Amino acid sequence: MTRTLREIIVRPLMTEKSMRQKEEQNTVTFQVRPDANKVEIRTAIETVFNVKVASVRTASFEGKLKRMGRHQGRRPGWKKAIVKLAPGHKIELVEGA
After folding, report:
1. Domains, the chain
2. I need a labelling partner for 17 at 20 to 30 A (CA). Which of 52, 59, 82, 96 fits?
């Protein structure tokens, strides 16, 4: 692994759906690097936030096509990780948001 554990996690995702899942299912959603796998994501979350991870689900998203006049480009693709925490564990970083 050539990247550090903090480089794998890009940012937490704060949407209405992710906040509802946090309360009902004890899951937290993060945007992660597109080349990170589930084992690396689990290790990064457990080490950085000092919690126990029960499971990790991932979803990859392709960047959207965008136009500026007659020129077109593409937004970068990204990856989302839905991390289910073990019972009794919380991540305090996303509690207040």
Report:
1. 5-87 (3.30.70.330)
2. 52
* 26 backbone φψ class: left, alpha, beta (φ>0; ψ -120 to 50): left
> pTM for the full model?
0.86
Provide the 3-class DSSP secondary structure of residue 87. Answer: coil
Using the CB atoms, write b or e for 28-50: b if 16+ within 10 Å.
bbbebbeebeeebbbebbbeebe
80 forms bridges with which residues in the sheet? Answer: 31, 59
pLDDT digits (tens, 9 = 90+) for 43-90: 999 999 999 999 999 999 999 999 999 999 999 999 999 999 999 998
Each residue of 10-23: b (16+ CB within 10 Å) or e? beebeeeebeebbe
The two most distant CA atoms of the chain are separated, in Å, by 54
User: Residue 52, SS3?
Assistant: coil
Hey, CA dihedral for 8, 13, 17, 19, is it positive or negative? positive
